[in-house]
Model the fold of this input.
Amino acid sequence: MSLALEVKNLYAGYNNTSIIQNVSLSLCEGEFLAIIGPNGSGKTTFLKTLLSLLPLQSGEIKILDKPHFKMTQKLGYVPQSADINRDFPISVLETVATAFNKNPLNPFSFLNKEKKERALCVLEKLELSDLYKKNVNELSGGQLQRLLIARAIASNPRILILDEPTASVDPASREHIYSLLNKLQSETTIIMVTHDLFSLSKGITKLCFINGDLKYFGNPDIDKDTLFSLYSNGEGTK
Amino acid sequence: MIDAFLNYAFIRNAVFALILSSIVCALIGVIISEKKMIMLTGSVAHTAYGGVGLGFLIGVNPLLTAMLFAVLSALIIGYFKSRGGKKSDELIALLWSFGMALGILFVYFTKGYPPDMQTYLFGNVLTVTKSDLILMAVLTLIVAFVIIMLFSDCKALLFDEQFLTLRGVKTKLLNYIILVLISLSVVVLIKSVGIILSLALLSAPSAASALFAKRLWARMTLSFVFSLIITLSGLALSHFLLLPAGAMIAIIAATFYALSLIIAKIKK
Done:
């Protein structure tokens, strides 16, 4: 199976401070990677570097065998819900349609019939088609997360990257989100940052524990004691 | 008031100037409010005062030089913001004072009788000339055309800029375009309500429309209607009460927003 992601000796962070150091890992297409670690351990920094939103300080990232900064349009990103302007007057349908903006600028790119149908098709997949007229600020936490996933997959990404998709959602919504992600796994590689250890039993194929550097990368069937020791002192099997 | 409109060219000019001001307030005011750029806009407006002073000093239409200063200051702020400048807040404050200071100096060095700078600070829509009106119309057309043309990108940018960047859209360029449009809008408003009072008209109608409209286009349309009500009633009241129009418009704008808040609360 070909590689979806290859990271070699990555150092990244803000200004001259490296938040993550010497991280190397690889992921095959169709896999589902969960990235866990304590608060401030560099999980989001790692994601933002993959997405080219942060420059890498040294090392190399290849996505589908090409330099990562040339491949951003092949990535679908689901941010934390706190990162979006939730009070903005935009409908569910319009939100998904923002994924169709892709050129340097999109003059006179209005929401036509073809775009509406494409967006509705994606919403159907994420079981949100009934809500297409609703405003984003009328959605529950779980519905909003599903909408952000719908927007990310609307551009047919090769890799779906999610930043804590189950934070601040109720258990039923969390279960729903995992079942949808498992369905999507047949079409795309998934990389997910999470604090939710419950996710480890939800179709994840690789687990990565970051705490500055890479503390663990491998099988998600990790025993509880090892996981506890990783969280408590940042040490583990590498 | 209708008699005055039919009989006096300066009243007609004032009404047309306020209609143009309402268009830019509706379009750009909503963007300013969603991007939380009202202080940045204040800085751009006050830097334009330097341009007004320069216009008097070198003997050209002060609105043209005000436009130059406004665009330059917006681009400088945009440059520092795009580099993630943590000091952009200080820069906004410094440009605010610097522009005003330059304006005062330029006027000081202007030969002859000192020009009436109050007209530019607090506005006097009754002094709008035909050439001012033509310039305002051209700027309003540019602002309206660009926003309609890039409506889809603007909407996506205001909702989630990071996502749009990942889609390959040149968000930095789009932000610069928005800053230039803000500068042009400020110039449109200088003669109507003045540099200082322009903030009231750029914030009140868009903030009030946010309480009632559920879509961006609806918010812009409602904001236009609110701006028209505020500016034209301000002009009418100032005409009957013999009070300064700019001040009346700003007071009505603030009152209108307060009333909108109460109505929105009752409706809930």
